[in-house]
Specification:
CATH architecture of the largest domain: 3-Layer(aba) Sandwich
Distance between the termini: 71 Å
Strand order of the largest sheet: 3-2-4-1-5
Helix content: 40-55%
Radius of gyration: 23 Å
Number of strands: 10
CATH superfamily of the largest domain: Tetrapyrrole methylase, N-terminal domain
Structural class: alpha/beta
Oligomer: single chain
Number of helices: 11
Low-confidence stretches: 1-7
CATH class of the largest domain: Alpha Beta
Mean pLDDT: 90
Order of helices and strands: EHEHEHEHEHEHEHEEHEHHH
Shape: elongated
Length: 290
Amino acid sequence: MNQIPISKPDTPIAPGLHIVATPIGNLADMPSRGRDVLSGVDVIACEDKRHTAKLLNHYGIRTPMTAYHDHNAVRARPALLRRLANGGAVALVSDAGTPLMSDPGYKLVREAIDAGIAVTGVPGPNAAMLALVLSGLPTDRFMFAGFLPPKSAARRSAFGEFRSVPATIVIHESARRLAASLRDAAAVLGPRDAAVARELTKRHEEVRRGTLDDLAEWYEAEGAPKGEVTVVIGPPANNPVEVDETALDAQLDVLLETLSVRDASAQLSAETGIARRTIYERALARRRDT
């Protein structure tokens, strides 16, 4: 890839912590102001220096880098805060997109603010926002839920918490868990419209749209896709949840054979979207009758 030469900005970069968005795939999406900041700060804190080096080399930026990620954040954060307290200028970047969206940057920002250090940012690429606007689903109200738990039971519980949220839901998911995650979402949230966006801004960008069941069926048949994946799930319908009392009691009886009233109620609430308290009271009555 051809390198684009870049010179140091004419105006010195102000001291403080600079949150800089970076491309999510296409290097041409790097904001020009972001390039100026990265070339003018004292150091760039990044998740993976090898990954960020590709971006810096592309633009001819020679600023030193230091690693800052989930595994070293506790150790690395004090050193960054000392540099900032002494009047340094530090840029924080993630491997792709806008920092703090599913990465450890929040604590660094929080502690910098608490220490009275200036925090500013350069907006730019963001996979969740791009997937949302490409999904064809409502954008007036949305919730970003990041990565969900890897285990099905915990994931279904998380989807249960979202069931009554009157907004479009945006999540990141690993390609290998995509089909199972979509199937869990369909089981808990019902036949909602959704979209799966992958490889955004790259050559093989794809947005596949359909109901959660349709998408789960597609990826079960086709296998795990390649690349980074973002799932967008439409908001709930305005219709209230209909309760089939006979079916609900039958499900409760099965669960109560192996689970406590509390755990059975929590699981069934997550799967059906019915208020946990309603199910709990019904479960207590079922147990008293046995």
